[in-house]
Amino acid sequence: MALEKLNHSLIKEIEALQAEGRTKGPERIIVDYIPPKGEKGPRYRLKDVDREFIRMNSNSYLSLSNHPGLIEVADVATKQFGVGPGAVRFIDGTFSYHVALEGKIARFVDKPAAKIFNSAYTANCGLALAIGNKQTHWIGDQLNHNSIIRAMRIANVPSSNKGIYAHNDMDSLKKCLEAVPENIERVVIIFDGIFSMRGDYAHIDEIEKIAAPYHDRFKDGVITVVDDSHGIGAYGRTGRGTADFTGTQPDVIIGTFGKAFGVNGGFIAASPAVAEAVRQKADTYIYTNPLSVADCAAAIKAIDICDSQEGLERLKNLKERVEQFRQGITALGLESIPGPHAVIPLLVRDTAKTHKMVQYLFEKGVLVVGLTFPVVPRGDETIRFQINAAHTQEDIDYVLDVLSRFEG
User: Fold this and answer.
1) Model's pTM, two decimal places?
2) Per-residue pLDDT for 21 more than 90?
3) Of 238, 345, 375, 377, which is most buried, counting CB atoms within 10 Å of its CB?
4) What's the rounded mean pLDDT across residues 37-51?
5) What's the mean pLDDT when you consider all of the chain?
6) Which CATH code is given to the segment(s) 68-306?
7) Does the annotation count 230 as an active-site position?
8) Which letter, b or e, does each residue of 235-244 get, where b requires 16 or more Cβ atoms within 10 Å of its Cβ?
9) Annotation marks residue 196 as catalytic
């Protein structure tokens, strides 16, 4: 059958998105990586653009993607087992590297067990499928990531079994707990560790204190879950994320290997029973091929680096560059949301000015992400800067100088 009719309808739908200001721009294509040299951190080249760029829009917080150690172990694993697993996990698609990575990440986040996924997005969906039932009530932060929202839909959670509390508002969370229906057997409080558009964090210590008195009210208790994709590896005293920073462990940690660790994939870390429930019940784990052994080997090496002196030095430089940039934009009289994380939002509060500033930065060789209405409410227009460990003091000075010369 021809696609002419469908094509026509899809074009109309995309045009409607464009009219609403919700379409994505053309994808820029990275064609070259230029290693750090002297006072300059890494640079990138884009297709059909004759300049080098500093990436201030990368989630690779520890700058490990190009680490020779990761590349070497990925190469060794690939030569041993090939580039793909050839099957899903339960049909002999489990290799020694998968098991080793699960043990490694569980120990890193101080949990007894873990299961790995192709992404944190599918991990969130998998957890909802694994631990949810008709007597489960879900409570989430108002600004939770799309993957958590989508997980609720995939798990067919009815509106009667959901509560949403105002962002980081503990009184609002308590009201949600008070409103849980009588027939509920288990309650799941789920939230981002680092809120990726704002750079602020969930106060896990306060959430646990709020939840504790309600634990005995329900047959299976109250379970706390953090998606700490932007925190693990890049945040806290030892890089163990928001739990490390707040000094409090939630019951379940979801994370990614695709940000601070610089590789690919996601994970759920919890009890052995939760891990087994994931293995038996999570469609996004059961019915798809796992990570390649190269990804697993590289992720294992990345975790080892994070736990080494080199990792601590990278984390130290990251913290120093974050502080340098935050102090710099404050000195320029620019507005941001306070926080120690490497996600630093610059509040522009005007759509046209945001677009103009993003283009100006691009012309000066700085890649950033602009968030404008209707993606964010009017007045909340933002440019998100993300600091990486390979950024140098001179890199940050350059970006601040560029910002100082913007005429909006």
Assistant:
1) 0.95
2) no
3) 345
4) 97
5) 96
6) 3.40.640.10
7) yes
8) bbeebbbbbb
9) yes
